[in-house]
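Design review, sub-item: ligand-bound model
Attendees: FS, YL, KQ
YL presented the inputs for the zinc ion complex:
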Amino acid sequence: MAFVRCSVGRHQIDGKAATVYVAWRVPGGNRLAYKLHFCAQHYLAHELRTIQHHLPENDSDGLTCSSCGITIEERDAVLLWSTDYLPKREAAQYTIVCCEPCSQILQHSFSTIGELLPDRGAELRGPSTPDPWRDA
Ligand SMILES: [Zn+2]
Ligand SMILES: [Zn+2]
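KQ shared the predicted structure:
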């Protein structure tokens, strides 16, 4: 049986774990995606959860940073996408809008505790695809 470790506490998770995927774009058009596991306690305590809790309900008056609450110009906004899989629940998708400094703090946090996933392009190209340039 495979055990899952909590991305925050690094302890083994008994029972059901929450799995969260977080992604954002990096300059050059690539996408970085991280996978995280949470125990129930750390899921509730993690800043991602806090931020989701404060997502603005109406952004028609402009964008607001989900983390610090300042108003941001659309061109300065950084988007992070998260998909949360909680035990016995439907997957929940969130778009987190951040100002540049907050996005860097979040991205650092996720990349420190999360597991980097190959980007989708790489997955599609796949290692098993025959390489037409290779001369056997
Ligand atoms: Zn934990
Ligand atoms: Zn901010």
